[in-house]
Design brief:
This protein is an all-alpha fold. Helix content is 67%, strand content 0%. The chain folds into 2 domains: 1-133, no CATH class; 134-256, no CATH class. The chain has helices at 3-28, 34-52, 57-82, 89-98, 102-120, 122-128, 136-165, 185-193, 212-224, 227-237, 241-247. α2 (34-52) packs parallel to α5 and α3 (57-82) runs antiparallel to α6 (122-128). Pfam families: DUF1295 (PF06966).
Length: 265
């Protein structure tokens, strides 16, 4: 199947899934469930690209298994975090700002998530349609990066979940495990995950496109909807967060600095 046809099918499925998530938030006034749906659709796109791809079978297997497992783990984690819980502060802020237009704006905001998902999915489609078999070095590199990213993100998610489960930590800042070295280690490993696929795109037309997903993810998290909104909320709800900002790297894990010095980049 041509890559354009596969991409159209993927986008249609993604749009439908996010429309269903919008209906759920319209009925419950809780937009948080878009997060696990978004992760699940991206994992589904990886499997779809592998199934419909015309590239080397090793590339397709890697994309389907690696992308599918990544999406499944993240979707399950986000479901456990959001289902039956109060609406995420980021979405609550949007709802308050939009007022009577919140329903309509949420729909288009959800569809924008679908567009972003398709841009990220270039990391799946290019290797899945690459007829060139990966070298052993490329396959090993991709596998090691993927393993480090997924296990690291899972560990960071687990550490934060256990910390927040203790009611004594309600106004405290998590600084255990990876969170001692990065204010957002889960986001760092999320960006790292997208670096696993370019190694499988060597020799493919448009191989350079696989460089864009990790850059796009980092930009979104650092500048748009991830870190800025989350940290604004944490600054209001956790008094010690300002010191944490001064001592701890925002994204890349790095040894903490004294409070009198500037934070690591």
């Amino acid at each position: 199947m041509p890559v354009v046809a596969a991409a159209v099918i993927a986008f249609a499925g993604t749009s439908l899934a996010l429309s269903a998530a919008w209906i759920y938030q319209w009925r419950t006034l809780n937009a948080g469930m878009v997060d696990p749906v978004w992760a699940a659709t991206l994992g589904g796109i990886a499997v779809l690209a592998a199934a419909m791809g015309t590239g080397d079978v090793t590339n397709r297997l890697f994309v389907g298994i690696a992308g599918g497992l990544w999406g499944l783990r993240l979707a399950v984690h986000l479901w456990r975090r959001n289902y039956g819980k109060p609406e995420d502060a980021r979405y609550r802020k949007f709802r308050d700002q939009w007022g009577d237009a919140a329903g309509r704006n949420m729909f288009w905001f959800f569809q924008l998530q679908g567009v972003i998902a398709m841009l990220l999915a270039m990391a799946f489609f290019v290797p899945a349609f690459n007829p060139t078999a990966p070298s052993p070095l490329a396959l090993i590199s991709a596998s090691l990066i993927w393993l480090a990213a997924v296990t690291g993100e899972a560990a960071a998610d687990r550490q934060l979940r256990r910390f927040c489960a203790d009611s004594r930590h309600r106004t405290q800042v998590c600084q255990v495990g990876w969170w001692r070295y990065s204010r957002h280690p889960n986001y760092f490993f999320e960006c790292l995950h997208w670096c696993a696929y370019p190694a499988l795109a060597f020799g493919a037309p448009g191989a350079w496109l696989t460089i864009l997903p990790p850059l796009l993810m980092a930009w979104l998290l650092l500048k748009i909807s991830g870190i800025p909104l989350l940290e604004a909320h944490l600054m209001r709800s956790r008094p010690a967060y300002k010191v944490y900002q001064q001592t701890t790297s925002v994204l890349v894990p790095w040894p903490p600095k004294p409070a009198t010095q500037a934070p690591s980049p």
